[in-house]
Amino acid sequence: MNKKKVWLSTILVVAVVISIIIGHSNSLKAASSLGKDTLTMITSPDYPPYEFYDTKGGDREIVGFDIDIAKTLAEKLGFKLQIMESDFNGLIPALQANRADFVMAGMTPTPERQKNIDFSIIYYEAKDTIVAPKGSNLKQPQDLSGKKVGVQLGTIQEQNAQKIAKKVAGIQLKQLNKVPEVVQEIKSGRIDAAIVEDTVAKGFAQANPDLEFNVIPSEEASGSAIAFPKGSSFVEPFNKVLQQIKDDGTLNKLVAKWFSQNTANPASSTPAKGGLNLDFTRILPDIPFILRGIPLTLLFTLLSVTLGLIWGTILSLLKILGIKPLTWVANAYTSVFRGTPLLLQLALVYYATPQLTGYDISALQAGVLTFTLNSGAYMSETIRGGIQAVDKGQSEAAMSMGVPYWLMMWDVILPQALKNILPALVNETIGLLKDSALVSTIGVVEILRSAQIVGANKYIYFEPLLFAGLIYYVLVMGMTLSASALERRLRQSE
Ligand code: ARG
Fold first, then answer.
1. Which residues sit with their C-beta closer than 6 Å to ligand 1?
2. How confident is the model at residue 282 (pLDDT cuts 50, 70, 90)?
3. What is the pTM of this model?
4. CATH no., domain 127-221
5. Domain boundaries 289-492, CATH class
6. What radius of gyration do the chain's Cα atoms show?
7. What class is the 35-124+225-259 domain?
């Protein structure tokens, strides 16, 4: 392949991929940018039977009590419904950033929350329980003395646990992002107990015969309500139809559908008991679900690498041009992006962009942007090295023939530099592919997140994670092999 063709095809790939991402991200955008006929709800689907992923058959569908209510309300109000997700502690920030029209996540109105967001009337009441290994007999707050206690981060269970810890000696709290993670920690013996709402605890205890739960006495009930951005005009109409479905029995029917017996619970098989007895048959039906994370992971990697390469090239040119302020800016940029954690950059871009610019950046876009900015910083150094390694004689020859600087760079130096740094670029790509798992933290359902969802639904962790690991490994191997083939061809064409 000649250089022009390589560049042309790169540009083509970028164009295609950009159009895919723009198309794709539409489905991730919040209501603010959608037509008025669609309402966007955001939830934390780690909470069966309120909201969880139905992973049967590979569909990525969030289902549950809250979802049914939301659908009923949206329909009655004449809107279509779109559902987004995030960890529970990201829900209120999402409302504040106007990323969604409302939250349904079994969320309890508390005075602190009411300072920042508005709530509807209450649609369901629940109580806290202590979940613990069978036979622990932990019935009331005092029993937790000296114990390690798990809670979901940002919930009122966390607050309640903190209150208890002030009164009862020796309680050590452990906050985790998702309820299934909390349950898993009990099962693996890292914590002694957890505080979980009753209906949710019931589901987990049914699926895990080695667990028990006890309702905390004298706990006043905590209701669930719909949350809206402060001042939202939707509160009134929602309250009206909510009252309506309370009165006409629709709500009660949904309560019966989701909260009676264990039909509400997606996990029915008996969980593995201690020891390393792996049982991959349990995730067989969910494998298509996990596999569907692959295209997104690949798209993400391809985009970040291509854009990162372009941005890195620009940065490296700024560094070697010899214009002091430009060099300084490029160096400062590199040092900031290499000097701070990628995960932090990701969270900043995702959460701060809407606030700073008013643009409702989708999780996927935020991921690509962050990875481009970050990998551009690393690549700029690699490319700078590659350019400086090209024989000085070449640029001198080109200059003496009167070839303009930019043309010489583009036509003579850069192609050679790129060829030299190909192994480094492959390394970078492999790194990006694996780091793409980080975007699972802002709600992109790529490979890792899919595996975690399956694990949460089936209450097993090992099998889906091992399977995800296998997928990553196969992808990386495929990439390595095709890169060495490419390198061989380039060398032959020399
Ligand atoms: N009701 C509790 C709260 O408002 C916990 C809700 C957790 N919800 C969830 N989808 N994980 O803090």
1. 44, 46-47, 50-51, 88, 105-108, 152, 155-157, 179, 197, 222
2. confident
3. 0.72
4. 3.40.190.10
5. mainly alpha
6. 26
7. alpha beta
